[in-house]
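Working notes for the structural subgroup meeting. M.R. asked for a predicted model of this chain before we commit to crystallization trials. I am recording the input and output together here so anyone reviewing the notebook later can reproduce the run.

Input as submitted:
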Amino acid sequence: MSIRVLAGVALLVAAAAGPTAEGAAGPGPRTRRVGPHGTYPSVQAAADAARPGDTVAIEAGSYPGGLTVHRGGAPGHPIRFRGEGGIAVLTGAGGLVVGGHSWLEFTDVTVSGSTGFGVYAEGAHDLVFDRFTGTNTLRNNVFGDGPVDVGPFAADHDFTDDPGFADPAHGDYHLAAGSAAVDAGSPERAPVFDLDGAARPAGAGFDIGAYERRWP
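Returned structure, recorded in token form:
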């Protein structure tokens, strides 16, 4: 399953072919290991070091601090995050922030304790999420590339295609006046602040997407 996400909240997928062990001679993808027997002290440190084609292998357990992705993969060479021996849980208020980075895959990785978005992506594509534990719902998202296969997840109050962004060609995904996504979201477990830090809702209801429209 491949989920193409433009703005809003998302959730977690498949590993593939055999990267070489980290430190092996010669060029090629590496496995960057996190956990009691790993090389890296945190998931964040391994993610920051990863390059397209690499795998971040995370021993089962809880890892504080969440994760902010600063680099994406490449066509045919995604960066893969994989729980090993069970589920790897990213804990902390920030959750998993993908931002605009693409070609990322997550398998047996989940998020707990986020005070805002569980997983956040904006302008990203070719994101794969699999075996995400618990009850998972894609809610109040904008899928700018059109309908997606949500796989095992429930979905409600999502919007496909452009709902009326202010200036998407220049990366501005705030909602324009008259957008069909204004006040159309669900209040259930909706973040109380948008990506700008502004309080939600600002109008008669929660807006769909990452930003709450705060002006007429």
